Automatic annotation (TrEMBL), chain A:
Gene Ontology CC entries for this record: plasma membrane
Domain NADH-Ubiquinone oxidoreductase (complex I) chain 5 N-terminal: 72-116
Positions of the NADH:quinone oxidoreductase/Mrp antiporter transmembrane domain: 132-423
Membrane disposition: Multi-pass membrane protein
Keywords: Cell membrane, Membrane, Transmembrane, Transmembrane helix
Name used for this protein in its record: Cation:proton antiporter
Organism for this UniProt entry: Paramylibacter kogurei
Automatic annotation (TrEMBL), chain B:
GO BP annotations listed: ATP synthesis coupled electron transport
One Pfam family of this chain: Proton_antipo_M
NADH:quinone oxidoreductase/Mrp antiporter transmembrane domain sequence ranges: 143-438
Record protein name field: Cation:proton antiporter
The organism of origin for this protein: Paramylibacter kogurei
UniProtKB/TrEMBL annotation, chain C:
One Pfam family of this chain: Oxidored_q2
GO CC, alphabetical: plasma membrane
Family stated for the protein in its record: Belongs to the CPA3 antiporters (TC 2.A.63) subunit C family.
Keyword Transferase tagged: no
Protein name according to UniProt: Na+/H+ antiporter subunit C
Localization in the cell: Cell membrane
Membrane topology: Multi-pass membrane protein
Keywords associated with the record: Cell membrane, Membrane, Transmembrane, Transmembrane helix
Amino acid sequence: MIFDTTTAIILAMLIPLAAMAGNMAFKNMPNLRDGFTFLCAVLTFGAVLVVLANEGNSVTSEFSLIEVFPGIDIAFNVEPLGLMFAIIASGLWIITHIYGVGYMRGNDEKHHARFFACFAIAISSVMGIAFSSNMFTLFLFYEILTVSTYPLVAHKGTPDAVKGARTYLAILIGTSIALQLTAVIWTYALAGTLDFTQGGILVGKVAGWVVPVLLGLYAFGIGKAALMPFHKWLPAAMVAPTPVSALLHAVAVVKAGVFTMLKVGIYIFGIDFLAETGASEWLMWLAAYSIIAASVVAMTQDNLKKRLAYSTVSQLSYITLGMALATSMGALGGGMHIAMHAMGKITLFMCAGAIYVAYHKTEISQMQGLGRVMPITFGAFLIGSLSIIGLPPLGGSWPKFLLMLGAADTGHLIIIGVLMASSLLNVAYLLPIVGRGFFRPLDDGAPTKRYEGPVLVWLPPALTALGCFVLFFYGGALQSFLLPIIGQ
Amino acid sequence: MAGTVSPHDAKTLIEQLPILQVLVPFCTAPLIVLIGNRHMAWLLAFVASVISLVISYVLLTQVYGGGFISYQLGGWAPPLGIEYRVDAANALVMLLISAIATLTLPFAYESVKDEIKAKDHTLFYACFMLCYTGLMGVVITGDAFNVFVFLEISSLSTYVLVAQGAGRDKRALTAAYDYLIMGTIGATFFVIGIGFLFMSTGTLNMADLADRIANEGTNRTIRAGFAFIIVGMGLKAAMYPLHLWLPKAYTFAPSAVTVLLSATSTKMAIYVLLRFLFSVYNPEFIFELNVMFLVFMPLALIAMFSASFVAVFQVNFKRMLAYSSIAQIGYMLLGIAMFNLSGLTGTMVHMFNHGITKAVLFMGVGALVLRTGSSFYNNLNGLGRVMPLTVAPIVIGGLSLIGVPGTAGFVSKWMLVQAAFENGWWFIAILIVLSSLLAVVYVWRAIEVLYLSEPAQGTKMAEAPMSMLIPMWILAIACIWFGVATDLPLGAASTAAEVLLSGSFGMVE
Amino acid sequence: MDWDFIAGHVNYWMFIVLMMTGLYIVVSSGNLVKKIVGLNIFQVAVFMLYISIGKITGGTAPIFPSNSKGYLEIDPSIVYSNPLPHVLILTAIVVGVATTSLGLALIIRIREEFDTVESDDLVKIEQQLTSADNKEHGDAMGGMA
């Protein structure tokens, strides 16, 4: 192959940093700057694809960059879940970058260079999270991700933005330092290692009350997974420009959270260990509650982005639920949901941004009839919604199916009920938006000429909507790709 | 190379390094006064500190893996003669002090020009060198009374340096006066403690003292001496509740002095505390007294929370950092109180890491003061956008102060939390992380002011001069470097902790 | 505690009384100069402690006589006092003098700037300055202070 895997992983982390440097260097040359970032995004994606071509879905041994503490290295390896996450994040970076350029220019936002530079650091740290081979490395990049996205959330600099960013930072840094760091060091004190190992590293090292408590420290400490009651940062972060919400708060940041959650469940505790001790049972109920409660809150939101944010809170809990079910099917379902939800939700967010760029509408109650003037956007929105709801032939149907299988395995029929109820709630809060757009008449005096905004703004969501279709047909392939994470 | 050196038999310059470490700055100070030119003064001071930095590094490489160098002053063998003794613990502290001094001097060049009258510059640098001599002497000496002498050399020059801030704010004078009173009481307490030790054992050499205390048992006099030494050094180290001199002194001292003090002076005191706790008195003695659990731990915890809490509500950036220093000293004391290898390693490494972290932060404030003439938050609005190169190191230092992973501050916090878990004190572990949340609050307030507030109308501020930017960036990069490549501080710190916990002076095994 | 014990430790009683007197003056006196004097008494107490412990009962000054050829003539039957504490205290006295002079110099500067050497007045002036700072800079922070 062109590069060996090690080089490719390092490149995947370094190229975004090059993009950052480029943004700073070409601060005042917008076309060169954005073109260079686009090139970097493509190259990053290429590097991740090289890893895929080299390793497939095998689990490689780690390579260490540097030893930080005795026995704890900054080290990376490839395993299917992380590789999938890296592919999604880097692939969607290309699309979001195109969209971001359109959005930022179409909307006359300021400080483009700073914006895209921070964006690039965030992507770099996501790559670090995806390929990290131990909990320490993961935690390191997790925190870098938090800090580097803070300027993005506060980007507008208005009092609202500052306040939102403060909430964002307070919850994410607060939970990760107070709870997650404690959990990580505690794990190290108990197990003597932090390496992600199939079957977990805590088996036989702990018993009794420590297991659920430690799991609790992780579950709440991974604030990015937006498990209730630590979900407030997600709606607060919606003050950010839409490309940030789209990539970071539908894909990179939140998915980094649930990805960490899955990693902890699968490789730190071990699915079988969790099942044996029953330590995750409470987490399962909490996730189920989170799913329903966030959906209900979503219904009450009139601000489109806020509604989508609460929808994300609810959907993220699917993945936590998958881990907490402590069965193979649950873990697989959770893993697949990372991909499927990412594709669906980014579509929805980009559509929301497109509506804002074209008509400066943020509230759902103002959107009647807009589907008539921007049919592509609303069409994409419909497809994204259906994928989130979980209807075939869209990608979102697979993980729900697997999660239900997992719930059936463990005999938790109520969880099946929760999942079904959640789908109905999804219908109730997503489809009316589309319905309002297509079937209500336009406001009096509103322009009736078809206008979708600049091409860079409506094309990307159309592409990702198409992706939702494609993923449905590759659902089986994705499932078998992920099989190694459950030891098969 | 480890072993005993008598100056008369020494063949190479390397063997003479321990005494040169003190002599170089000590001779520079009068030379500066004699030459009497303020540019030459700066140059001489800088050259001396560079030489001293090289010496520190060479010494550290010699004792990095364990062992010690004993240098007999004037060829008089200890315990009668004065001995300089270098082991991993003090070599690390010396490296920190000399590195900070070497970086502070270029920074001081512009800052001192701005904040102090030109006619005082020569004397300023002479005092700076004397203070530096004192710090080095305290750290390197193996003689208990010699510690007091060097301590007073550094303290007296520090009072003068703090008072130099009077050009900007007259409260520097009262700050220096208060510091003088408190510092002298502390030093006198310390010397009473030494006197008690001398009464019981008849020796002043630390290794000899350790030997006698360990082998001949303790009595009430020795225990009383212990209390005096702890209180005396606690005052110097700004150990809660003996910290009252610190906020004022740090706030009103000239920027360059604050950098030096915050990064080195309290660290030196903590080092002496460690040396006496573990090397002179032995771990068993302390364990029996239970002083760690009953005194150090509660005081450390109170310092961590109360000082951080006060820091949150400051309107002056510099003062905020001063309170944060008290809290961070709490971490170091907590590491001592853990009384295990990880805890002591944590303390040693936090001394180093917090030293560089606070240095970059205070330098950052100093640079802002140079440009805006104020360190109050409301005069610093939006400067992050106006002078990005100057403010970015402050952000990095701030992150390290919080202990964000990938920065130096994280390494020490990790060690401390790990130590707490090793002791089974999970409650303490939680308190440590909770108190770092307070650090998030006070650091982020500063960052919001610097980046998210609108700069005042028509603010056209130049970046800080190169002579400031370079040391700031070196320290900022060091904050990140030592958060990832932890070999040097962590390796030396764990050797030092082993040395200390073994109870003997400089000997592992 | 009999009389012999009390009388036998007279140097310590002196030390404690002097030390406490000195400390009390430092703490209680409002005048900066008096504080320095207190500090001096406090330090002198310590000097006394050191010097008194060097004394050995029946000991004489540790000076060795030399004969006409310049060789030392040491009589092993003579008991000498320990000279080391005296030497140490010589250093400590120097330190004490330096501290005192520095303290007095600071007081002169303080009087020039604040026009008082009473700590009560100084505290008042400083409080005014601090609250003025807080008012000026705290209000501008939007009451966040």
